[in-house]
Amino acid sequence: MAAPRRTQAQRRAETRQALLEATIDCVVEHGYGNVTTAQIALRAGVTRGAQNYHFSAKTELVAAALEHLMDQLIEQVRLDPPRGTDTTERALLLLDRLWNLHDTPAFKAATEIAIASRTDPELRARLAGLNRRLIGMIRGMLDETFPELMGNEDIYPIMLTVLSAVRGVAVVGLIGSPESIESLWRIVRGQLEQLIARAVEKASLAG
Amino acid sequence: MAAPRRTQAQRRAETRQALLEATIDCVVEHGYGNVTTAQIALRAGVTRGAQNYHFSAKTELVAAALEHLMDQLIEQVRLDPPRGTDTTERALLLLDRLWNLHDTPAFKAATEIAIASRTDPELRARLAGLNRRLIGMIRGMLDETFPELMGNEDIYPIMLTVLSAVRGVAVVGLIGSPESIESLWRIVRGQLEQLIARAVEKASLAG
DNA sequence: TTACATACTGGCATGCCGGTATGTAAATGG
DNA sequence: CCATTTACATACCGGCATGCCAGTATGTAA
User: Fold this and answer.
1) CATH class of A1-56
2) Does A32 sit within 8 Å of B174, measured CB to CB?
3) Which of B64, B74, B52, B76 is CA-nearest to residue B24?
């Protein structure tokens, strides 16, 4: 095993990333309340000393991990926007993509951490902008995906409602069985589909 | 201070209730992850010994507390069903009541505990039926409140969608500022209102 | 090569949490 | 009025998570 001779910046980046990802994994697996710094360090293949060197407190690590996760998700979504000639078709594609995003382990972790931040001021402060940022991202995506609806202010309330419903289902999904969630989502999806279809119809009549 | 000479059943019931309520209060105030059994006992005005006598483990106490809370809420809701001549009017009344239920400290506690139960099998098992029970309650209430819609299967999907959306908003409400939640709810409420109104209209045409 | 900065190691120490064990008071029943 | 059960109090233990620190290695600049 020859020493890889990494540069300082590389070393730093690699261990940090390993820690951030291990944090998310551990939260997903054991739940935020049960996660220990030792577990995280172990999973990251890093000693507790190194861990503490980069992130002096647990909260800091967790907050950073969630921000990192968010960055990944946003990037991942931004990379392939929904394509299609039909407006409704694109909208439903977006809907499904939104759901898939919420049906992911990452969302579990994010939710746990967000919930925990309610009573942790330090954490809360750092996470304050994340939801705002998420909504901003979705908004931007809407504008890009539906240029024909540009300037139509009616779509944002619908977006928020859809997002809320998706979140509601996703939250139940944290504790329910996959089958029950699947069935619940099918039902809710049907309703949201109608909501969207009507909105698109209305908008194209107006436009 | 003369001894009140309470009966055993009274003593038991009183300390138990004090413990259950203190548990909810503590969870609301400090968050599930930070709550300690000592805090709860202190708040309930009970020693840790008594606490342990009634609830041998923390999980047991928390689960019992949530069930107790649920009982209270269900009872409270069942006591005054929405009245009104107009179907839509009653539906909107129900919608607001549903939101008020979710905009309460009790919901915060319930959510925290539910989230925690994801990685706590013991807790999860005891809470498994609660959501089912809640939905059953809402279903029953729908049947009572809208006898004219009886047998119309279309309203359940809508109910689930509305419930999901309400929950989604409520979850954001856990960490957001009261103002931002108020404004979000107003927006979502507007959409749900339309959803409901359309459903009622359709149902009365069919009926 | 020397001097310095950054990255990392391993272990210690403290506080605290949940659970238990044992003793005491209050109520019930005969 | 005594015996037994139920309800509660106090003290304690084992364990463990967290943060910290003194030292070491590795990269970087003079």
Assistant:
1) mainly alpha
2) no
3) B64
